[in-house]
Amino acid sequence: MRAIITGASSGIGAALARELSRRGWSLALLARRGDLLEALAAELKTPAVALPCDVTDREAVREAARRGAEALGGPFDLAVANAGISVPTWATKFNVDDAERIIRVNVLGMFYLFDATVPAMIERGSGRFAGIASIAGLRGLPSASVYSASKAAMQSFLEASRVELAPRGVGVTIVNPGWVRTPIIEKYKGRVPFVMEAPEAARRIADGLERGAREVEFPLPMSMLMRTIRLVPNALYDVVLKPYAKRRIDPAKVRR
Ligand SMILES: NC(=O)c1ccc[n+]([C@@H]2O[C@H](COP(=O)([O-])OP(=O)(O)OC[C@H]3O[C@@H](n4cnc5c(N)ncnc54)[C@H](OP(=O)(O)O)[C@@H]3O)[C@@H](O)[C@H]2O)c1
Q: Which of 141, 142, 156, 184 is least surrounded by CB atoms within 10 angstroms?
């Protein structure tokens, strides 16, 4: 079984690559930092290929997917759009460059992987496409407005695609993690509730992918909290979430 994962140089993507490799998958690993991908590929016991690539470059993603399939000996059974950035954004000091960058990586990056892998799955009548969205996509979070919007876009796209692709034999999985301890959350100075370690998150994701889950969401307390917040009326939401707009963030630890 062959899988392609974007954002495999770090955090959830690297942990998922390790977990899938333990389960016997061959892996094509995409991200910008080729040295980290090479080190990971060398560490894995199953065939793995490092494909340095910026997911905001459509042609580069197509070419990486082509080279990955060739190196691993056939088309992908699983594609995971995991590459993502989380740059804080505020409506009060809107930075359109950051907004554009987040959408390019998180949303267009997913579309480019979809474009590069799903047509071959449709042709074969099998395969699975997954997107690592977020619990943050379930409602607009102050100080993360564009990040929330990018994850909501992923969720809507994946949900609609799931319905369309099911009769063609192709599955779709939406993954909504809560806090996972990876470099992306190092910038938050305050408490991060119910944080999960990356290997545990990877196990839950791999379990969901292998059983063909439509949605994987964790940890349960964070999922229940956000699902409840989704039901809260707007006036109450505005009061409860007000402090969130003033979260303490270390700008030196924000990666773009
Ligand atoms: N950690 C959490 O609490 C959490 C919660 C919910 C959802 N998520 C989502 O999980 C996914 C993985 O994040 P993480 O927590 O594992 O953070 P991370 O450790 O910072 O990993 C992000 C990955 O995305 C890659 N990436 C970023 N921009 C890229 C680009 N332009 N082209 C190719 N690769 C790019 C990075 O690789 P390079 O820098 O080498 O390119 C890195 O491998 C993200 O989509 C994130 O939104 C995380």
A: 156
Mean pLDDT computed over 228-253: 90
Separation between Cα atoms, residue 248 and residue 210, nearest integer Å: 38
Q: Does CATH number 3.40.50.720 belong to domain 2-253?
A: yes
- What is the Cα–Cα distance from 233 to 207, expressed in whole angstroms? 34
The Å distance, Cα 30 to ligand 1 centre, comes to 11
Please tell me if the CB atom of residue 143 comes closer than 6 angstroms to any atom of ligand 1: no
Give the span between the Cα atoms of 60 and 156, in whole angstroms. 25
CA dist 27 and 44 (Å) reads 9
Please, what is the Cα angle at 148 between 63 and 254, to 5 degrees? 70
- Please give the Cα distance from 167 to 169 (Å, whole number): 5
Q: Judge if pTM exceeds 0.85.
A: yes
| Alpha helices by DSSP H, 125-232 | 145-165, 198-211, 220-231
> Can you give the pLDDT at residue 243?
87
Ligand 1 centroid–CA 120 distance in Å is 25
- Write the pLDDT tens digit of every residue in 49-73: 999 999 999 999 999 999 999 999 9
Question: What gap in Å lies between CA 10 and CA 36, rounded to an integer?
Answer: 8
What residue spans define the domains of the chain? 2-253
Determine the Cα–Cα distance for residues 155 and 158; give it in Å rounded to an integer.
5
Among the atoms of ligand 1, which is closest to the Cα of residue 81? 45
